[in-house]
Amino acid sequence: MAKTHPIQTLALIATLLFTLPFFFIGGPDWQAAPLYRQVWNGGHIAFFCLSIVLIRQFIALNSPRHWLVASLMTLAIGLIIETIQQRVGRQFSYTDLAFNLAGLWLGLSWTQSPTKFIWLLRLGAGFLLAPFFWSLTLASQLQLNSSYQFPTITSFESRSELLRVSGPAHLSNQIASDGKQSLKIDFDSAQYSTVSIDKPLGDWLGYQFLALDIYNPDTQPLRLVLRISDTEHDRGTQALTDRFNIAITVTNGWNNTVLKLEDIQRAPLTRELDLSQLTNIAIFSQGLEKPRTVYLDNIRLQQ
């Protein structure tokens, strides 16, 4: 068994008891910045790592049989947590189960004398942790780039931008209006085919226009709808009349769309859109006869 000062043991117990409720309350919602979301997810790793460090104050856990039992119990506890989370507004996550195991193996392996098997255990923990640290790196890069390039919302020059893009889209270096890349969007023939760009979008107060470039490679024009929403809309009824919507027609080649922020702000029927708390820019097609492709680039604010 690992020996620890009683004060350290009490500190571990207090930390675990304090953090346990956060599996079920608080945390990032879908509007949260990617960096905050990634840091929060790291709590799974820390909790199970500290838990096994605490348990080893009382139980040796020195044999592979012990490690197997601990791994199976961690999976079982993780399944219980994820099941309960579904009942309190969270989503079931297999990634969180992997993070739980990674934390367990990290705590087990680094509190044991190094042997070949222990090093294999450390490598296993590192393998499970690699996606977390990669996502954390991308989220940090996105956070820094967003602050540095503002009032450019995005020009899609970094892979990290995909952390806040959802829908049938990916980065492309085939064509760009700014830099070397754009976002290639492949609209399908569903009733609504949507690509959205989520937070962080910055504070738009003090600017006059929103501009974006859309390239249509086809000779046939394409009708799209641009939608912008804020925090109050997303947490409320999400009614069509409580956000900004505008139909745009993109013709062959590059289309530079410029919108007055005053019009965006006044779009809701009973209030003003909060330009300091915008959460989402979305572009969608409606009932296309066949799939269509466009390229989106250089979303920016202008004076």
UniProtKB/TrEMBL annotation:
TM ranges: 6-27, 39-59, 65-81, 117-139
Keywords annotated in UniProt: Membrane, Transmembrane, Transmembrane helix
Coiled-coil spans in chain: none
Protein name stated in the entry: VanZ-like domain-containing protein
Organism: Simiduia curdlanivorans
